Every structure is written in C-alpha cells, then in structure tokens.
Amino acid sequence: MNIILFGPPGVGKGTQAARLKEAYNLLHLSTGEALREEVKNQTELGKRAKEAMNKGELVSDEIVVGIVINTMEKASGKNGVMLDGFPRNIPQAQTLDALLSKRNITIDHVLSLESDQEIILKRLAGRRFCNKCGKDYNIYFNPPKVEGECDACEDGILAARADDNEKVHLDRLNVYASQTEPLKEYYAKKGLLRPIDGMGSPDEVFEEVKKILN
Ligand code: AP5
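^ Adenylate kinase, sequence as received from the core. Prediction below:
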C-alpha cells in the first residue's frame, strides 16, 4: 500500500505518520524531516535549502526530488511507502507519477487532512521538540510535565522549530494555498483523494484514517 499524506502545515501529518508507520509497516518519507536533517548536518544541500525553509517558501524541486529518489530505493522489506509533505506542487506531482510508473508502483490513497486555520495556528504555535532526543510536545495539547523540559531526557530543553514563528506560519499557509492546495483537484481527478476531518484528537483522526485503509 502506497499513500500520500496531504494537508496544510500543522494539520497533523507528522503525528499521523508516526501511527501509520507502526500500524502498517510503511517506509515514511517526510521531505521536511529529510531537509531538516541536511540543514542540521550542514551539508551543501542543507545550506541551499535552509534559507527557503526559514522563510516558509518551498525548497527547489530539484533538491526535493533528489531526496525522494534516494529514499524510495530503501523501501524493500516494507509494505509500501508513505509520502509526507511531498508532492507540494503540480510539477512535483508529475515528477512523482513518472518515477512511480518507471518502478510499476501506484498510489492507493491521498489522505487529505483538513482543519480550520485557527486550530492549525494554535497547533503550530504550541509545537516544541527536545533538543536532545527530538521527542515532540505541544504546550497546548501535549505539554511536558515540567514547563520547557523533556520528560525523557535529564537535561533536554524544549525548543520550537526554526520555521515555527507567527510570521512564517502565515507565509507557509499562503504557500500551501497557492502552490499545494491545487493538488487536491489533481488527485481528485485520479479518484485518489480521501478527505479526513483532522480536527479531533490524534487518536480520533487515526480512527478515521484506519476506516479508509482497512
Ligand atoms: P514540513 O516539515 O513538511 O512541514 P509542514 O508541511 O509545514 O508540516 P508540519 O511539519 O509543520 O506540520 P504537520 O502537518 O506534520 O503537523 P504535526 O503533526 O507536526 O516542511 C517544512 C519545510 O520544508 C517547508 O516549509 C518547505 O520549505 C520544505 N519542504 C518540505 N517538503 C517540501 C517539498 N516537497 N517541496 C519543497 N519544499 C519542501 O502537528 C503540529 C502540532 O500539532 C504538533 O505539536 C502536534 O503534536 C499537534 N497535533 C497534531 N495533531 C493534533 C491533533 N489531532 N490534536 C491536537 N494536537 C495535534
């Protein structure tokens, strides 16, 4: 089973991906995560991507497609691939179609998580990660036991992502509306779009996801 997790920044794609990966043994490819790793390791690619990411813009298709190709080669032993945050514009979707057809792979579902913007902005504003182990928290929806400190690490400090600030949130949502949202029509025409109410708790949303996949 091959799926695309689709939706605006902060809607909960990463949160659902963690559950899906375990439950269905899928290879999880988050282009955002992969890019953040490149930035952290200060690779050439990371240096090129960093500026666009911090401004909430899309990284060039050439860089992102390279990452996708490299990761797809590692899918053996899994029940399929879960693309999270890719494709993000029509050219990326067309490139993906070409890559998949060369490998005789088809997409089964495009899970489109949907939510009001107000909820999305609150989720993004509350998101924090431990600087040691990477565990994620949300000060509104999933707070740590002690404010600003990781529950799991002795000296882990919680911090927001570099692109998690009010101005960049709005820029990312605008980029989503202008460049990414048109993909809904692209996938609806192929009969693959599955809209999902993303406004409930993470477990409630996952129940909706499972209804589609099972
Ligand atoms: P990326 O990392 O893909 O970020 P995004 O799409 O903006 O999505 P987020 O990771 O912000 O949110 P999410 O939907 O995963 O939500 P989450 O589960 O964390 O991309 C980052 C950047 O990389 C882009 O801006 C771009 O520059 C670049 N990039 C990436 N892919 C690219 C591509 N294909 N082409 C070009 N550039 C690309 O949830 C958010 C918060 O809410 C969390 O705190 C979570 O705990 C909480 N939460 C989640 N679900 C719930 C719930 N149901 N109830 C309560 N709280 C919840």
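The mean pLDDT is 95.
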